[in-house]
Amino acid sequence: MSPEGIDRVPRGPAPRGDIRSDLRLIAEMVTPGSRVLDIGCGDGALLAYLGRDKQVDGRGMELSQSGVNACVSHGLSVIQGDADHDLDEYPSDAFDYVILSQTLQATRNPRQVIDNLVRIGRHAIVSFPNMGHWRIRLRLLFHGRMPKTALLSHDWYDTPNIHLCTIKDFVSLCSATGIVIERSLTLDRAGQPFALDPMSGLANLLAEQGLFVLRRGD
Amino acid sequence: MSVQQTTRPLGTEPPLPGRRLEITEPFQLDSGVDLAPFTIAYQTYGRLNADRSNAVLVCHALTGDQYVVDPHPLTGQPGWWSKLAGPGKVLDTDRYFLICANVLGGCMGTSGPKDVNPATGETWGLSFPVITIGDMVRAQKLLIDHLGIETLFCVIGGSMGGMQVLQWAASFPERVFAAVPIASTARHSAQNIAFHEVGRQAIMADPEWCAGAYLESDRRPARGLAVARMAAHITYLSERALHRKFGRNLQNRQAVTYGFDADFQVESYLRHQGITFVDRFDANSYLYITRACDYFDLAAEHGGILANAFRGSKTRFCIISFTSDWLYPTSENRAVVHALNAAAANVSFVEIETDKGHDAFLLEEPEFFATLRGFLAGCAEHRGLAFA
To answer: What ipTM was reported for this prediction?
Structure first.
């Protein structure tokens, strides 16, 4: 087998022609030609995009059988698994980027998951819904009900989102565990970036999502 | 139970169709014994392309054979993977050159215990050396060398066939572009060994087995082999599938008969499975091949760490398991996935939802077929295979 025979670019039809704007922001952070693990990769839209447009050697992990089947049948390398149980075996620095998009809040042990992300990847890209958003605060204050938003649309009794946090909470966990925040962005509901200092109280009030690039501390 | 004995006098079997490779060089087995000369019986389907890059090696399971696509020469039944393989199928013989060889120790043309030992002129019987999955794979490699194929596009198989796939990927990684072990394991579990032992004991308890020398006296341990098949067949199904198919339905009667005839449909079904099996399979081969499975432990060959078997591998893996398979359950398949991840290998893994048990790998499961079709298409792109 000749190494040049492996060009690693899936050229099959992408599951979707275009990708969500928050995924596009993540894609822009990835260096072309790098090795990427996308955890919770869904139908593989981001992986297909990265493979096609950035010549990335991509791997995925997805919980749902329908998602995995969609990915594999489009020629993507994806395993059925989840962030809580299937990250331990990966060697350190196995990937340039490990991506966890809108999935952290559904993990059983987010702290251990984040530790694994920065161990397996030289960089980890994590996005999550911000529970500090004013709409959520107001809903709880005035309605006295568990907040539901576009990103968190489940009722409290059937939600998979069991570990919700604010941007401030997330930043404080990173600092407590010695994880370095290389870059941070705050996004509105449509996934468009805000021109706000992500570390500010205002960002924690106005942003609907946080998007962070992390690496492990020295 | 009544099992019809259909013994044919030795040497009167019609010759099996297909191709043969005679190996004359000494071939050292894992047991240390040299086996030579010996025969590999194989079938091919489709055409090898000009740069010999479209070859797919199919590895058959315990009681399978090389007749993947065409009808079985003894039973007339369709090829065991004819739902999956053939013109226009997932393993498309219009695109790929399929090769399947009867395993070493088998009874469909490749040398095994029912053949004559050329050194003595007598039937091997139990004097045939014990073989391993590794031996089977190294014998297949001789065939692949003979066919002039440098890199197999894909090695694929289910159950014991999946063990051979993993062995191929571990032993000859540079010659395997893609590997698809289905409903398989990297190590035979205590439960797997236990079930095989039941089957072997059933054969050996049959007086017709004659301590393995039944062919010389023109006898066959058909009852023992049928019981072995019946016990094994239960492990290939699932409780739910058995219930769905048979429930407690009675066989051609309105009430139980207070006797030991096959009152229940499930009994009748199992007896049929046992009886039809003895017409096409050799009891001693069953002993040897189940033993080869029992000895299989890929990690043990690599310092006890399965990931070491795949270190540095460039092969693209697709592991497939089935939810209701309790013989080679998802957990065993997932252990292979974890080892491949630990070796930073390129791996896909899908668990297919089905109630059909281990046998699902032989059946038309739409999600299974769609996944495999997509994986092969993706690999074909990476391999630069162009199809007209």
So the answer is: 0.82
- Any catalytic annotation for residue B65? no
Rounded to whole angstroms, the Cα distance separating B224 from B317 reads: 39
Candidate list B115, B135, B294, B325, residue with the active-site label: B325
Asked if B377 has any chain A CB less than 8 Å from its own CB, the reply is yes
In this complex, is the C-beta atom of B347 within 8 Å of any C-beta atom belonging to chain A? yes
Domains of chain B: 19-187+297-383 (3.40.50.1820), 192-290 (1.10.1740.110)
Residues of B in contact with A8 (CB under 8 A): 382
Instruction: Report helix, strand or coil for B190.
Output: helix
* Distance (Å, whole) CA B337 – CA B316: 12
Q: Which domain holds residue A184?
A: 3-215
Are A72 and B350 in contact (CB < 8 Å)? yes
DSSP strands (E only) in B159-256 = 176-182
CA A207 to CA A201: how far, in whole Å? 10
Q: Residues A126-166: pLDDT tens digits?
A: 999 999 999 999 999 999 999 888 888 899 999 999 999 99
Q: B244: which 2 tokens?
A: 């769905």
- Tokens encoding B109: 């043309």
Chain B contacts of A64, Cβ < 8 Å?
none
Here the tokens at position B222 are 């058909």
From B53, B263, B358, B359, the catalytic residue: B358
Task: Record the tokens describing residue B248, joined without a space.
Answer: 């407690």
**Yes or no, beta carbons of B347 and A77 under 8 Å apart:** yes
Say whether B31 is catalytic: no
Length of chain B: 388
The pTM assigned to this predicted structure is: 0.91
The domain that contains A152 carries what CATH number?
Answer: 3.40.50.150
**DSSP symbol at A9:** -
Place of tokens 């739902």: B83
